[in-house]
Amino acid sequence: MTSEPKTLAIVGAGAKAVAIAAKAAELRAMGVDAPDVIAVERSGVAANWQSGGGWTDGNHRLGTGPEKDVGFPYRSSLVPRRNGELDERMTRHSWQAYLIATGQFAEWIDRGRPAPTHRRWSQYLRWVADDIGMPVVQGEVERISVSTDDGAERWSLHTAETTVHADGVVITGPGQAERSVLPGNPRVMSIAQFWHHAASHERISAERVAVIGGGETAASMLNELFRHRVSTITVISPSVTLFTRGESFFENTLFSDPTGWTSLTLSERRDALARTDRGVFSARVQDALLADDRIRHLRGRVAHAVARDGRIRLTLSTNTAGEAVETVHGFDLVIDGSGADSLWFLPLFDQDALDVLELGMGGPLSGELLQESIGYDLAVTGVHPKLFLPGLSGLTQGPGFPNLSCLGMLSDRVLGSDLTAAQPVASFARSRLDEETR
């Protein structure tokens, strides 16, 4: 007798959600048990790859090769003796399959296999989602709580219109793009405001422009800013210079095949992440920077921002010879491209849900503890119901999981996880809290 399928809810309907839903659909088509996958999305499938999502104008090129699609690297490990069949089924949802189905394959080959625009990538993801009939609940998750259903603890995702109950939750996406160092000031742009200008073809005209951030989010904004009427562009980041992302075979292998990742020390892993993923620009963007003499770099973290005398004055803090040094710099326009808050989702959890996390991990919530608690299945170890945080899994599981570099392996890890908790940890958490408050 087959048990009722579990439900896996995914916050966001981007590439990770589509990859997981596609593999789950193919597993069911093979007669293999797989959870029902439901995405909860405030806009639409692949919204963050379109101009309305706030993270791009849709015209910039994908930084990762499109062949690293929803099935890559096509080394499934979920169905013994049938993994080859599963991989073959997943090729039906590949980037090449999309191009063939839409009559674009020959042109793409003849043009030298160019990286697609973000808009084209979003069209590919929507094509896959439509093909598998991915269920999407329209609405923004406003609160996440824990509920009890027939004695089993489940997550409850609350939107303004509905509530989705799930045995496991996957958090995806970078959060909101509207934050900035000085909200409400017209001389300070958030990521979303910048891309809104770009998408509406509004030219930015300013003498001295500062871009905060040294990662790929800031890099894509710089790539766009070259086209605007600005005299100088100062990139502000904590690193000593603007580093180029390692893109040789050896670095790329870390993303596609993290087999040896866990054998590295934490120090070695952090060093590898710093060299290949975090706070680095792609080689393509660095080439553009070298060719433009308007670009400057300032080392430091923005400690304070204030509007004064028609300018934005940024106080930068740097550590020089073991001492904190602060300097003040004035700009006509500041663009905050410091990227996403990796813990953007925590305010969604109500107090009971936060208690489940803290007691499951054995300590107060922090970004560092969460990162170090991510297990093989990309879920927080010791926490039930399962909470999958692929965006924080780079340190413990490999640098490819937080981004687009191994979506097929990511779906394997998540779908291979046991969503059934041996012990209802949430109930245990509440009893512990009751004892502590007596």
UniProtKB/TrEMBL annotation:
What keywords were assigned to this record? FAD, Flavoprotein, Monooxygenase, NADP, Oxidoreductase
One short Pfam name that applies is: Lys_Orn_oxgnase
The protein's Enzyme Commission number: 1.14.13.59
The reactions it catalyses are: L-lysine + NADPH + O2 = N(6)-hydroxy-L-lysine + NADP(+) + H2O
Name the InterPro entries for this protein.
FAD/NAD-bd_sf (IPR036188), Lys/Orn_oxygenase (IPR025700)
Q: In which pathway does it act?
A: Siderophore biosynthesis; mycobactin biosynthesis
Q: Which SUPFAM superfamilies match?
A: FAD/NAD(P)-binding domain (SSF51905)
Q: What is this protein called?
A: L-lysine N6-monooxygenase MbtG
The species is Mycolicibacterium arabiense
